[in-house]
C-alpha cells in the first residue's frame, strides 16, 4: 500500500504552493485561498496532469480514491483524461438529441445567413420534416434508415424541400462531430442512396419571352409602389428581395450597390454587388421617392417593405402564368439572342458566378461599364412599347 504524505489537518491549513501526497497526487493551494487536487500520471511516455476537483468539494479520502481509480486506468495503457471525457460524453449522450444539436448548428450558422436567419428559411426544412420524427433521438443513434423514413414522404412530391432538409441535416451531423460526438457523417449520403432518384421534374419559373416584355412593361403605367417595383426589377434583372429592400443610400452616382448579405446564390456572401442603373431605372427611382419610408423606396402600406408575393399577385390577377423571377430569364435570353455580350459578362448581369476559382481569383472586374451599356440597351427595348 502506498504511503501517503499529507494529513487531513495539514490539508485544511496548507500554505500556498504544491503539496505532494505521494504516487502522483498533489494538492495545489492558490494565493486566492482556493485549492484543488491534481493527479500526475505517465501514459505512453507522456506525463498527464488531471484535475480531480476542488478541496471544498473533494475530501482527502475522496481524492485518494479517485487517484487510485485513474492510476489503474493509466496503468492499463489508457489516457485517463480522454477516458473521463469519453465517459462524460456517454453520460451526456441522451441529452445530445438531434434537436439540441440542430439548434446549436443553426446558431453557429446564423452569421452566414441573411438577417441572422430570422426569416427561418434555413431551419424550416428540418423543423417541418425531420425534427418532428427524429428530434428527440440522440444524434449518435441517427442512421440512414431513420433519415430515409423521415424524408420518404416528401422525397418525390417536395423534392426541393427534401434536398434542403438533407443538406441541413448533413451540416448538423458535421456540427455534432465537431462537438466530439460519435455521429455517422455518411448517413445522409447513405439515406440518399436508399431514397433513390427523385421522380420530381423541376420546372423553371415561367417567363415572358423578351419580345413580349415591352408590352407588359407599358402596362405598368400607374405610379404605384407595385408597378414601380416591377418596372425596376425588369430593368435591372435583379431578384425580388434586393429590389424590395432597396434603400436610397444604396444608390450613388447612378450605381446601385447591393450589400453582399442580400445576394442569393453567390459563394461570397460578404461581397457587395454593383448594378449600373439605366436612365429609365433612375427615372423609376425618382417616381418612387414620394413613397419612400425610412429610406426604403418600396415600402408596404403597413410597415416594412412590400412582401415577396406582392408583385407575383399582380401578375396572377391578370391571369398570367409568368412570375417576376422569370424576367431574369427574359433578360438572359435577350442577351444571348440580340447582343454579342460574352458569356461571363451576360452571367455577371444576373450576378451568377462564372469560371474556375483560379479564373475568378485573377479576374478583378465586375464588367461594370459593359453591363451599363447592355442595361441601357435593355431599358430601351423594354420601354419601347406605346402606352395605350
From TrEMBL:
Coiled coil: none annotated. Keywords: DNA integration, DNA recombination, DNA-binding. Gene3D superfamilies: 1.10.150.130, Integrase, DNA-binding domain (3.30.160.390), Intergrase catalytic core (1.10.443.10). It comes from the Bacteria. The keyword Amino-acid biosynthesis does not apply. The keyword DNA-binding applies. GO terms for molecular function: DNA binding. InterPro entries: DNA_brk_join_enz (IPR011010), Integrase-like_cat_sf (IPR013762), Integrase_catalytic (IPR002104), Integrase_DNA-bd_sf (IPR038488), Integrase_DNA_bind_dom (IPR025166), Integrase_recombinase_N (IPR010998), Phage_int_M (IPR053876), Phage_Integrase (IPR050808). GO terms for biological process: DNA integration; DNA recombination. Residues 200-375 form the Tyr recombinase domain. Transmembrane segments: none annotated. SUPFAM superfamilies: DNA breaking-rejoining enzymes. Belongs to the 'phage' integrase family. This is Integrase. It comes from Seohaeicola zhoushanensis.
Amino acid at each position: 500500500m502506498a504511503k501517503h504524505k499529507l494529513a487531513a489537518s495539514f490539508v485544511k491549513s496548507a500554505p500556498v504552493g504544491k503539496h505532494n501526497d505521494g504516487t502522483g497526487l498533489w494538492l495545489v493551494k492558490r494565493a486566492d485561498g482556493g485549492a484543488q487536487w491534481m493527479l500526475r500520471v505517465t501514459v505512453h511516455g507522456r506525463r498527464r496532469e488531471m484535475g480531480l476537483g476542488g478541496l471544498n468539494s473533494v475530501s482527502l479520502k475522496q481524492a485518494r480514491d479517485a487517484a487510485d481509480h485513474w492510476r489503474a486506468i493509466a496503468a492499463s495503457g489508457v489516457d485517463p483524461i480522454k477516458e473521463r471525457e469519453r465517459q462524460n460524453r456517454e453520460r451526456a449522450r441522451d441529452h445530445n438529441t438531434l434537436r439540441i444539436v440542430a439548434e446549436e448548428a443553426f446558431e453557429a450558422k446564423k452569421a452566414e445567413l441573411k438577417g441572422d436567419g430570422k426569416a427561418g428559411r434555413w431551419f424550416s426544412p428540418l423543423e417541418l420534416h425531420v425534427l418532428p420524427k427524429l428530434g428527440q433521438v440522440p444524434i449518435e443513434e441517427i442512421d440512414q434508415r431513420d433519415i430515409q423514413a423521415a424524408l420518404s414522404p416528401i422525397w418525390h412530391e417536395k423534392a426541393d424541400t427534401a434536398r434542403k432538409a438533407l443538406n441541413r441535416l448533413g451540416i448538423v451531423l458535421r456540427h455534432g462531430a465537431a462537438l466530439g460526438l460519435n455521429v455517422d457523417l455518411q448517413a445522409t449520403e447513405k439515406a440518399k442512396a436508399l431514397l433513390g432518384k427523385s421522380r420530381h421534374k423541376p420546372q423553371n419559373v415561367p417567363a415572358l419571352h423578351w419580345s413580349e416584355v415591352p408590352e407588359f412593361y407599358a402596362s405598368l403605367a400607374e405610379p404605384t409602389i407595385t408597378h414601380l417595383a416591377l418596372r425596376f426589377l425588369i430593368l435591372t434583372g435583379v431578384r425580388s428581395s434586393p429590389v424590395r429592400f432597396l434603400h436610397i443610400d444604396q444608390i450613388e452616382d447612378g450605381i446601385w450597390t447591393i450589400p453582399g448579405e442580400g445576394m442569393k446564390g453567390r459563394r461570397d456572401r460578404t461581397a457587395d454587388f454593383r448594378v449600373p442603373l439605366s436612365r429609365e431605372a433612375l427615372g423609376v427611382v425618382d417616381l418612387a421617392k414620394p413613397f419612400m419610408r425610412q429610406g426604403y423606396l418600396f415600402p408596404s402600406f403597413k410597415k416594412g417593405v412590400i412582401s415577396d408575393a406582392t408583385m407575383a399577385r399582380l401578375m396572377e390577377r391578370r391571369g398570367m402564368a409568368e412570375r417576376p423571377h422569370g424576367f431574369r430569364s427574359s433578360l438572359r435570353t435577350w442577351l444571348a439572342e440580340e447582343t454579342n455580350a460574352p458569356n461571363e459578362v451576360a452571367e455577371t448581369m444576373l450576378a451568377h458566378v462564372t469560371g474556375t476559382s483560379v479564373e475568378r481569383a485573377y479576374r478583378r472586374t465586375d464588367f461594370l461599364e459593359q453591363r451599363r451599356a447592355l442595361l441601357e440597351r435593355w431599358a430601351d427595348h423594354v420601354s419601347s412599347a406605346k402606352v395605350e
